[in-house]
Each structure stands twice: as structure tokens, then as C-alpha cells.
From TrEMBL:
Residue spans crossing the bilayer: 38-63, 83-104, 110-130, 137-160, 187-209, 221-243, 269-290, 302-320, 326-347
Keywords: Membrane, Transmembrane, Transmembrane helix
Domain of life of the organism encoding this protein: Bacteria
InterPro entries: YkvI-like (IPR038728)
Presence of the UniProt keyword Signal in the record: no
Protein's name according to its UniProt entry: Membrane protein YkvI
Chain spans, region Disordered: 398-443
Biased amino acid composition, Low complexity: 428-443
Protein species of origin: Corynebacterium genitalium ATCC 33030
The keyword Glycoprotein appears for this protein: no
Length: 443
């Protein structure tokens, strides 16, 4: 359970840590601009994100949801559900066209190219990729995220070991000179707004991640892990930018400037890491938007996709920095509404979530190893059919989800055995198939 929870937490962070972290602009405006008080904002952001992550993942698992509208519709009234759905749609489009602007600013800052060059390059790539298998491309691009984390660590370690600042004077300078985000006049409001923005960008995928997990307890552990990791990554980034504030103030991509100052070669590599992160975020947002808008008429998908790309490209000429400063706060407040509704409903659903979690654990134990059954559980003496009847899922959905869960556990056990014993994987797979055949039949 703990191992899976940690894995879920890292999956969640893989969604959150995107182009925003890569540029450093949001962290600079939402935290560094408040000086030392911005450091307290990191703590607040981590706590709020942990609550949000737990709620998003838990509801996704509870309803076995494969998209966000099911959760929104189940846990809130019609008006709130529509507001949350349209907020998610607005976020997809808005962040998508901000990424076009980010691509232009990235290449302009690194090479001095006209800002439209990056935007045109992004547009051409987006239009071509829209015809391909986007899921496979996204998996490959997902490998860029660890590179981003490595570069943030490099920037942080170098800054901590080579830069010495007086925090009091640096704090005063930052408050007077660093431009903050519009609509967030205080450090705590900036932290909340930034968290709301990231949560809104993440909620749809987080619900899907939760829905891919039958074990409702593991996903809640994953949410707590995600909050801790989010705060840790944010702390490294913000403190680094705070210490380098005088050198990077005014740049559209402050983290890129830090890496160029460390070593031009690092800056060159980071330029393309950022470009790929921007592309990955843009693709994910525009693709999801087109899918959502055309879900009742999928034949129009590519037309809507192209239209969104073209409109986004045109709007990107407003500029990356103004868009982040003025558009993101609006999305942040919409995200706070989504957090407030789902976290509130999470506490209302707490007993039902706990009961369903125990029921599912009992079902998995009954199929895989009855000795693991908790004799004190109210479900200890129930058959599989009775457990399916008691679950909030319908019988067919319960059986299918349970089947998938047992297969995943068997795969994990086989991998653990292979790594421990050094056995041949094919032989282990065959043994696993033989030993678990009765379990699969029982389901």
C-alpha cells in the first residue's frame, strides 16, 4: 500500500511539475515578489495541495472515474458541477495559448531570435502531432520531467553553495522590485492562487490517475506524498530564484537565466528541456480541450484542435510575462473554487470513502490470500458476490476493477520476486500465471 501510494504521489507530481516550474516565472511572481514572507507561502501551498491531491485522487478511485465530469456531477449540485467543468475547459485553452507565448520567449531569451519564431515552430509541431498517436508521444515526452527536476536540483545546489545574500536586504529588494501577479496583493493570497492554478491544471488528470486505482487507501497516501513533494520542489525553486533575484529580475524565464549563469552549456540544454516541457503542456491542454468539446461529435476533433491552436497562436503575441501576470490569477481563483468544493465534499464523504476502502481491501484479500482478511472487519464473512452488492460500484464495474487490481498486484509480486531472486522473468511470469489462475477464475 505504501509503495503504491508513493508511486501515485510521484505520478501526480509528474503532472504538476510542468512548463510552469521549467520557466520559473510563476514561482518568481507568486512567491519571490513577497520577499521572505513568500517562504511561508511555500508551506501554505504544500498543505493546500496535499488536501487537494487527496480529494482529487480519492474521488477518482471511489467512482473509478475515467474523466472529471463524473466526479464533478456526483459530488456537487448542477451549478457547481458546471462551474468546475467550464473552469477546467478554460484552463485547458488558456494554459495552451500561454505555452505558445512561452515557446517564443524561451528561444528569444536563449538565442535572441524574434519571438514569433518559437511560436511558429510550436504551431507547426502541434498541427503535425495532432494527426499522430498523442498518447505514445506524451509517454516519451514524460521522460523530460525527470530532466527538469535534475536541472532544478543543479541550479539549487550551485546557488546554495556559490551565492551568499543577506536575506533581510534581499527580501526588501524583492518586495520593491519584483513584479507580483495581478490580483494577489498578499503572500498568502499569492500562495493560494498559485496552488489553485496548479490544482486546476491537474484536477482532470489526477481524477483519472485515481480512477486507475481500485485501492482507495493507497491513493490517499499518494495525495499526502504529492503534497510533500510539491512543497519540496517548490521550496528548492523559490529559494534559488530568491537568492538570484537581482540577476534574473526582468527575464521571462528566470530559471533559464540561472542555468546560463552557471554554465552556458547547461543553459543550452535547459533551453530545449523547457521547449519540450512547453510543448508537452501545450499538447496535453489543447488535445484534452478538443476531446472534451467534441466528445459528442468526435469526427470534428481535428477541426477543433486546429482552431484552438490557431487562436492560441494569435493570442500568444500578448506576451508570456503579461499573460502569466494577468491571466493566471483568474485561473488560480477558479482553481481555488474547485479545491474548496472537492475538499469540502471529501470530508462529507469521509465515512463512505473509508467503508468502501475497507470493502475493496477485503475483496482483494479474499481473492489473493484469505489469510490477510481482517477478522474484525464487517466484511470478513462476506462472499465476493455479497461484497460486490455492498459496493457503491455496480456489480460489473466492481468485478472488472477488482480483476484489474488483482492482476496488477500479481505483476508487482512477480517483479519483486524477480528482483529479489534474480530469476528469469519468463519463468516467473509462467509461475505467477499458474499460481493465480484460481484467483482470476474466482473473480
Amino acid at each position: 500500500m505504501l509503495k503504491r501510494g508513493i508511486g501515485i504521489g510521484f505520478a501526480f507530481i509528474g503532472v504538476v511539475v510542468g512548463a510552469g516550474f521549467a520557466s520559473g516565472m510563476e514561482a518568481f511572481q507568486y512567491f519571490v515578489s513577497y520577499g521572505e514572507m513568500g517562504m511561508w507561502g511555500i508551506v501554505l501551498a504544500g498543505v493546500v495541495m496535499a488536501f487537494a491531491a487527496v480529494a482529487f485522487l480519492a474521488f477518482g478511485s471511489y467512482f473509478q472515474a475515467n474523466e472529471h465530469t463524473r466526479v464533478f456531477g456526483e459530488v456537487s449540485d448542477g451549478l457547481s458541477s458546471k462551474i468546475m467543468d467550464w473552469s477546467a475547459i478554460a484552463c485547458m485553452f488558456s494554459v495552451g495559448f500561454v505555452m505558445f507565448a512561452g515557446a517564443g520567449s524561451n528561444l528569444e531569451q536563449a538565442y535572441g531570435w524574434p519571438i514569433y519564431v518559437g511560436g511558429v515552430a510550436m504551431l507547426v509541431i502541434m498541427l503535425l502531432v495532432g494527426r499522430l498517436d498523442v498518447d505514445k508521444i506524451s509517454v516519451v515526452l514524460g521522460l523530460v520531467t525527470p530532466l527538469l527536476i535534475i536541472f532544478v536540483l543543479i541550479a539549487s545546489i550551485w546557488t546554495f553553495t556559490h551565492t551568499s545574500v543577506d536575506f533581510a536586504s534581499q527580501s526588501e529588494w524583492a518586495q520593491q522590485n519584483v513584479e507580483g501577479a495581478t490580483g494577489a496583493p498578499t503572500w498568502w493570497l499569492g500562495a493560494l492562487n498559485h496552488t489553485g492554478l496548479n490544482a486546476l491544471c491537474t484536477v482532470s488528470m489526477a481524477i483519472v490517475i485515481g480512477g486507475d486505482n481500485f485501492d482507495n487507501k493507497s491513493v490517499r497516501i499518494g495525495g499526502i506524498v504529492a503534497g510533500f513533494l510539491y512543497a519540496a520542489m517548490l521550496a528548492l525553486l523559490v529559494v534559488t530564484l530568491f537568492m538570484e533575484a537581482k540577476e534574473i529580475n526582468g527575464d521571462d524565464l528566470p530559471l533559464l537565466t540561472v542555468l546560463f549563469n552557471i554554465n552556458p552549456a547547461l543553459g543550452q540544454v535547459m533551453t530545449w528541456v523547457i521547449f519540450l516541457m512547453v510543448f508537452n503542456t501545450c499538447l496535453g491542454m489543447i488535445y484534452a480541450l478538443a476531446k472534451r468539446v467534441t466528445r459528442n461529435n468526435p469526427d470534428n476533433f481535428y477541426k477543433v484542435y486546429v482552431g484552438a491552436c490557431l487562436v492560441g497562436f494569435v493570442l500568444s503575441f500578448i506576451g508570456f510575462k503579461p499573460l502569466v501576470a494577468n491571466l493566471y490569477p483568474i485561473l488560480g481563483y477558479l482553481g481555488l473554487f474547485v479545491i474548496a468544493v472537492l475538499v469540502y465534499q471529501y470530508f462529507r464523504y469521509r465515512d463512505r470513502l473509508d467503508r468502501e476502502g475497507e470493502l475493496r481491501t477485503a475483496a482483494v484479500d479474499l481473492v489473493t490470500d484469505e489469510e490477510n482478511l481482517d477478522p474484525d472487519s464487517e466484511f470478513a464473512d462476506m462472499s465476493l458476490d455479497e461484497l460486490a452488492e455492498e459496493s457503491m460500484l455496480d456489480d460489473e464495474e466492481f468485478q472488472k476493477a477488482l480483476q484489474s487490481e488483482v492482476e496488477d498486484e500479481n505483476d508487482e509480486d512477480t517483479k519483486d520476486a524477480d528482483s529479489a531472486d534474480g530469476t528469469d522473468s519468463e519463468g516467473s511470469d509462467a509461475a505467477a500465471d499458474s499460481s493465480t489462475g484460481s484467483g482470476s477464475t474466482k473473480i
